[in-house]
Write a structure and sequence with these properties.
CATH class of the largest domain: Mainly Beta
Order of helices and strands: EEEEEEEEEEEEEEEEEEEEE
Number of domains: 2
Oligomer: single chain
Number of helices: 0
Distance between the termini: 23 Å
Number of strands: 21
Amino acid sequence: MNGQALPGIRCTLLTLIVVMATGLHAETARGQIAESEDNGSAAQADSVLSGPYGEWAIGNINPIGDVDWWVIDGASPGDLVFGHADLSGAVFSDGEALLRFWADDGTTQIGTLRLPDLIAGEVVPQAGRVYVEMRDQSDNEEVAVYALFHAVVSPADAAMEQEPNDTPATATPVDRAIMHGTAAGADVDYFAFPATQGKLVQVIADNDPDANGRNMASSIELFRTDGVTPLCPPSGDCGDRGFDNPYNVMQISRSAPANGIYYVRITNEGTGADNRYSFVVLDDGHTMSCATSQSCVFIDGFET
């Protein structure tokens, strides 16, 4: 880790205050948004917001052969795409669906999926819209329900971890849309972020942020506000979703039981070829960012 400090930020984890600038942006966060049929082509795509006012989408693939399209407006060339189709509530035999992102022309695919339901850190090639296509991988099953989480964000809206951040007490605040870090050897990295009671928290990480083909074999875990108790799903399965090569992405999704400050812990499993990573945190579909004038999350003592 390079221990790069974030200018103008001092860290104490006390009170959560959400500050929304007035008169600068007409949109407000809506959280979950449902598909409206017919959305079976790019021309019929349902609109979904990304960023500080972002939403997460819910839909189903029904009947067999159905395809759902979504569209995110306002992308710039060089923006980075993170996305995950959460199929925990889906019912279909092969256990997989196909999630693809397309550039403004509707024909240029953004990135290459290493997993059928997950993408991270892929570059937007064209200005304008980003289209999202969701379908059954083999077009021979129905998907009872899926949740689409996504972020299309500027690479400039990013920050490095602050060392030391090896414990919850010294956790780096997640105050940009993208957080970068390095975990070598037995190093442990903690990050702190605010979450909303009853809302879904999604962490999507890129294990190859410099796109050199050398992936970090990372492990990701979420912890409750005490920094010690794992944040587990109702099933009680607290396992992470960290991958060795050849996968360059990972994700974890949980529901926050109360308002407060939660923690991400990232470690290196040691079997990859690199030690760098980046990730986004979504709280009910919203990115964490103090880099824009529209929205800023302050944790008392964090100053920007």
